[in-house]
Amino acid sequence: MRWMITGAGGLLGTDLTELLRVTPGMWVVPFARSELDLRDADAVAWAVRAARPDVVVNCGAWTNVDEAENREQEALAINGTAVSVLARVAAELGARLIQLSTDYVFDGSGRDPYRESAPTGPINAYGRTKLAGERAALEHGHHVVRTAWLYGAHGRSFARTMVGLEGSRQTVSVVDDQFGQPTWTGDLAERIVQLGRADAPPGVYHGTSAGRTTWYDYAREIFTLLGADPGRVEPIPSTALCRPAPRPANSLLAHGNWRAAGLPPMRDWSTALHEAWPALLTSWSARVVSQAVGVGGE
């Protein structure tokens, strides 16, 4: 089975590419951002036709939420227009597209986890552009995987930021009124491969861990894993952060469509974090050392 990955150098794309390379029967054609400009429709169409994939996974995206408020058309070119090209060309070739999306397509005003069929209503430009990409993928009969609160061995994440702040600040202020599901990219990569190999119906799937927490409690868990005093994490309301783009208060996603397709949803976020932690910490430390001596880097 041939796979094409866009955004292959990012947080999820790196893990997905590495997983496919060690999975028997899989052949992967990865495109990092420097190798494929998603704003170039002709280049995107050419890449898909050249790769001749059975499955295309679009991990590429404009992810700067606050910048999108002032540059929405630029974000839309990557998060919406490029997806239209990927979806159309993949359909022409008989390939399946798995489009990565986000909890930000919801307004976050609900109290319960959002079902896959729940009405969307983004409250910021980033969410609007990602919703445009979802609609393009679904229009051509493809898959959409919404995810949120990602962390992994590669790239930036809230977890990695907290590790840095623990070593540089006496106290850290973190919002305690936003709910979500921290999700390990290794777990999500496994589910994406399962989805690509299965005869699962097209539509929306929610790719987040089980359970629920707040950014505040998540940060306290990270401090605990570091052997630091979680009391150094101080709770603050979202209103204390002056950000250009509003964030949804509820980012909880339900996972019914995995079960309906005969595929397992992901495990609890805390279990995953504890299991991944030694490898994550080792990876992050190695990258810090390599950057200090001028080798590698992000």
UniProtKB/TrEMBL annotation:
Q: State the superkingdom.
A: Bacteria
Give the pathway annotation.
Answer: Carbohydrate biosynthesis; dTDP-L-rhamnose biosynthesis
User: From the UniProt record, which GO molecular function terms apply?
Assistant: dTDP-4-dehydrorhamnose reductase activity
Spell out the Pfam families in the cross-references: RmlD_sub_bind
Q: What is its EC number?
A: 1.1.1.133
| InterPro entries in the record | dTDP_dehydrorham_reduct (IPR005913), RmlD-like-bd (IPR029903)
Which EC class, in a word? oxidoreductase
| Location of the RmlD-like substrate binding domain | 1-276
Print the keywords alphabetically. Answer: NADP, Oxidoreductase
- NCBIfam families per record: rmlD
What family classification does the UniProt entry report for this protein?
Belongs to the dTDP-4-dehydrorhamnose reductase family.
Described function: Catalyzes the reduction of dTDP-6-deoxy-L-lyxo-4-hexulose to yield dTDP-L-rhamnose.
UniProt xrefs under PANTHER family: DTDP-4-DEHYDRORHAMNOSE REDUCTASE (PTHR10491), METHIONINE ADENOSYLTRANSFERASE 2 SUBUNIT BETA (PTHR10491:SF4)
Protein name as it appears in the record: dTDP-4-dehydrorhamnose reductase
Lineage at the top is: Bacteria, Bacillati, Actinomycetota, Actinomycetes, Streptosporangiales
